[in-house]
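anyone seen this seq b4? input:
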Amino acid sequence: MTLPHSPGSVGEPRPPQAVQVHRLERRQEEEHKEERQQSLHMGSSVSRRTFRSSEEEHQFSAADYALAAALALTASSEVSWEAQLRRQTSAVELEERGQKRVGFGNDWEKTEVAFLRTQRLLRQRRDRKALRLRTEEKVQEAKELRELCSGRGPWFWIPLRSHAVWEHATVLLTCTVQASPPPQVTWYKDDMRIDPRLFPAGKYRIVNNYGLLTLEIRRCTIEDSATYTVMVKNAYGQASSFAKVLVRTYLGKEAGFDSEIFKRWMSGPGVEFTSVLKPVFAREKEPFSLSCLFSEDMLDAEQNIQWFRDGRLLRSSGRRQILYADRKASLQVSWAYKEDEGLYTVRVPSPFGPREQSTYVFVRDATAENPGAPGSPLNVKCLHVNRDCLILTWTPPSDTRGNPITGYSIERCQGDSSEWVPCHEAPGGTCRCPVQGLEEGQRYRFRVRAISRTGSSLPSKASEVIITGDHDAAQRKTEIPFDLGSKITVSLDDFEDAVTIPSPPTNVHASEIREAYVVLGWEEPRPRGKAPLTYSLEKSVIGSGTWEAIGSETPVKSPRFALLDLEKGKSYVFRVRAMNQYGMSDPSEPSEPITLRGKSATLPPPAQVQAFRDTQTSVSLVWDPVNGGTELLGYYIYSREVGSSEWQTVNNKPIQDSRFTVPGLRTGREYEFCVRSVSEAGVGESSASTGPIRVKQALATPSAPYDFALLNCGKNEMVIGWKPPARRGGGKILGYFLDQHDSEEPDWHPVNQQLLPSRVCKVSDLREGHFYEFRGRAANWAGVGELSAPSSLFECKEWTMPQPGPPYDVQVSEVRATSLMLRWEPPLYTGAGPVTGYRISVQEEGSEEWKPITADPISGTHFRVCDLQPGKRYMFQVQAINSAGLGQPSLPTDPVLLEEKPDAHEIEVGVDEEGHVYLAFEAPEAPDSSEFQWSKDYKGPPDPQRVEVKDEVNRSKVILKEPDLEDLGTYSVVVTDADEDISASHTLTEEELNRLKKLSHEIRNPVIKLISGWNIDILEQGEVRLWLEVEKLSPAAELHLIFNQKEIFSSPNRKINFDREKGLVEVIIQHLSEEDKGSYTAQLQDGKAKNQITLALVDDDFDKLLRKADAKRRDWKRKQGPYFQDPLQWKITEDCQVLLTCKVTNTKKETRFQWFFQRRETPDGQYDPQTGEGYILIEELSKEDQGLYRAVVSDERGEDDTILDLTGEALDAVFTELGRIGALSATPLKIQGTEEGIRIFSKVKYYNVDYMKTTWFHKDKRLESGDRIRAGTTLDEIWLHILDPKDSDKGKYSLEIAAGKEVRQLSVDLSGQAFDDALAEHQRLKALAIIERNRAKVVRGLPDVATIMEDKTLCLTCVISGDPAPEISWLKNDQPVTFLDRYRMEVKGAEVTITIEKVNSEDSGRYGVFVKNKYGSETGQVTISVFKHGDEPKELKKM
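predicted toks r here
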């Protein structure tokens, strides 16, 4: 609440009537204010906030303020305390006088009077104190009230009011504000502060006249439609008020507040696109995405943002997501198929209708599993789905990779399974095929592969899921409504007569006839019965008179059936029988004769295929559509660069229209195009190719110029500047037409009749003090472009300010990821003094703050801005500085996006073929009429006295006439009339210039490049070849060969060859001799290029060459007959055997091979005539094998030999190698228990004491042979024997085998269980040895067989052993022998003798001596044969 009186009235008396009147006026004012606010159609708002400064310590409520005001108003009407005291004193005196008159001197009265006097004095004293306190409080309250009323926050007495005005009118926004102290006033347009200095002069006028605030907007345009806000603020608070301004264009009867434009404007600002959708080149089975940016956040993005493909609305799915976040809408596809190819469009609503952007997404074929296999088919669809069959169709691929398609493979997936099973093969001439044998009620998906001779393609995208069933059943049902929305479903089958066996089918016909199949159809029988039906088909060849049943793997349940095995050229008739569980019907009537159709022909190619320029990277194609009817599936487009023979596919999904824009082409390149028709029969022939077309921007009229600025102003003239059109139309801007308009006149007037070549125009004959606006058009070869919007109003008033005017033509070039170049023109108005520098400011897009780039002014009119952030947009402005200060800013540049441009062209520096140093710049995307503007150090064109500029198509070159230090500096180039920045720069340094000058000298004074100097080769027959190699020479090149200062030419002994194509010079000397000693010099000349190469063949170099040539010649002669390809050499086999080998070649059947050892022929050598290999194997090499080994091969053509001296060092080398291999062959150490102790050994394949050394270690201590330790070797074993092992023998044992430089170490741990096991084995063997040594046994003496004549005496003696002495017994035929009569046994020590006297035939048999003691027993046997007198023993007969 604010007090209704000024601060100056505090403390002054005011009548109560005045307070009441003021309050009444205040209430009326509030009521009028509310009425005014409600009467505003556009609506307005007043907001106010009161706050206190930090200096105020007390806070007062509204009641406190009211009480303070009442006290202040009544303070003057109260009587002071001194007057009241005098009044009370006089009253007491009067009372005392009356009491005196009444008391008549009574003492009691005196006492009472004294009491009263004392009482009055006390009361007076108390009242004085109370009055003093009350007075102090009132003074403090008055002081606080005065301070409170002296400061007050602002509030609007009259707020802003909204306006709706016509275009070009002037609108005045006014409001009244009250505040103390006077507030600071700021105006805003759509939350952007209005600074009249940043707008054209006269556009805005802001006035503050003692609280009456005014904003005047002159010559309103559509862009002035906005919400305007005024904000006032002082130290005690702030308040704001806003109003809307609608600028309308006259639209006839539809104009006004009821117009559609007004309604759209009232709905809020529209969303604009801030990025452009670009073509996407994706690959099959890989992800891709599309995204675009908006100027504002989109409300209800899911509903308002719509994505379309080829006009069909897209929704999010399993592999496709539609997202929106941070003013960015995106469409993401995680797994691309060729069906995803097409024209994608994003659409958003706006007050002026939907806004949309479109681009094309191309999906290329994935890499084939089999190289050369065709691309995958697409658009697989299921048609005519029945209970057990359907028709499958697809679109052929665009790219067959050079191999025609021979067929298609169809795969199916049943139910929820992920297993794909091949189910059919379709011929290559059709993209339509029936599929049969399906199960009713099942879910199926299908996919197709294309097949060529190189293999199978990747599978296509699976078809949509279909469910097999009787889809005609719904047609046989009727719904009957009843009882308010209920329905009864009645089947027509219920009205048929009750039958068991069905009637015959009817109307048997061919529903589809193709090259490879016929689809037969018929109508179900009537009546059909209620039992499920199946069908049996029969066929008959016309003229045969017989019917043949058509077999099917599964029952036919649908009234359709595909016949795939018909023969071409024959006519057939068909009939059908119906069957159910009760029986089979009669056959139907035969069909009409049916014959397979001929091969389907592809559609003809389109005619009149024409290509037109479109953009820098695209070309538009149009053609006459093919009259293919329903068979036409679309068109495939192919392209190739001029000069290439291979056509590339443009699209992989057929295009339905007869026009298409091909994007993604390389700017400046020439292309050819052709089109093919696509049908179910395949891809047709190619159309005639278009003529070569260069990819360039199509010529069109330019867009409108914009951003008009006042550069200078006099009394009756103005200098106007503007920016060029954003879109130049692909051609050179020839000039501009400018119009002017006086704000006080209704009509526009042209400024010029002829084209203005520049973007600065001086307009004369103007009236001082008037306001003018301007508009313009740009013109190129295509015509006059769009008319620009009117400029701001500029007041024609002579500039007299001391500061300079604005710089103009601020250009941005050489935009890279973090830097760019700024250039501008100095101001036309310099003010009070010359311009001393410039200040550059930068503003990041989205920010309102302009920041200076450098702390100090810049002296020139160009500056490279560095250290910017990539990916952001910036704007720049320039201000001139003179002695008076900072001048007006230039127009801000358009927002510049800093990003990395990998394809940005740079200036090429080099030396041409003539030796000229040049700087070249190539811009394939430059328009045809563009120019290359070169500049040196950004100060203007290079000096024509020092450089020469040569322009070619899309290329310009600056040639330095005489390169010198004066040519150092920065060379920049800008391509004119291009919509995008095409510019570059290069700084030529002294180091680089010196390098280029050196290269230039080499080119102007060329030297034939030497690749290889003189080389010397000895040829097979001993010829000597001298040769050198230089770079490729022209046919006119010359050679002069100088030998010992005299030119030589080809002769029988010296052949000179000069191959200019290869740059080869060679001299072949047939027979090198002393006459060829000397120096050889080759002098070469090819045009201006020269070179001279010298070879000196003297002294030792010549002698070595001569010896080598002679040896080569002898070797060649040797090789004319049989000779040794590989000389005799030795090698060691894995079994440590020495193998001497050699190999002979150029042999024949009569060739003889001989081996010699120590000059004697040896038979040990071997020779294989098939392979020519000869060898001698020495199994165990010894000193006896040392000597001279020689192999000789000979026939009538000649003889050759090879010798190997295997003595001395050669023999030592063999033994050393044997030792090395033997050491490497050593097996790991093993532990073995023996009769004597424990044995540690290692097996080797070879051991030689002279060339191999062994050392044993126990616990890293070397062992020597002793009483208990014995070490030894054999040819195949190295061993250590520990006799009578003890615990001290435990530990690690190591064996070191040294053979030459090779040392092999082996180790084993003889402790723990290993020691225990070995010791136990030793003890066991020791015990067995004792037993074996003392066991009873027959040592020797008994023969195996003995023969004797009858009547002779047989005496058999044997030797036995054993301790104790064994028991002895004899056996005959395993029976004990009783020693009686003729049998007698005699024992003498270890000899045992048995004697049989007068033997007879009964004594024949098997005899054995059996010996036995406590350690064991043994039997010795002999067979006795007794023969009669006169007979020969049986053994002799056998002999």
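DSSP finds eleven helices and 99 strands in the chain. Residues 107-149 form the longest helix (43 residues). kinda curious what u guys think
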